[in-house]
Amino acid sequence: MNNEQTHTVIVQKAEGNGLAVAGLVLGIIGVVLNIIPFLPYILGALAIIFGGVGMMKSVKRGMSIASIILGVVAIAMKFLFWIGIASLSSV
To answer: What parts of the sequence cross the membrane (predicted)?
Structure first.
């Protein structure tokens, strides 16, 4: 009698949150490239949007929160930059 056993291997793929990762990358680029005139507004807004949509998933919520924070920081840094330029021009 031939006792052959067949084994089924189930590989479970780790679930990801692509929008959270994309928002985090956009937020980092927005903060780093803050000296470019209008780029931080666009990248910051996209980071906030992607982070907000990424919050819908329960996976990698920390990345979603970080992307929202970095988007707000990028936009705030740009506003502070223009306020500094305006105050220096009045001196």
So the answer is: 20-53, 65-85
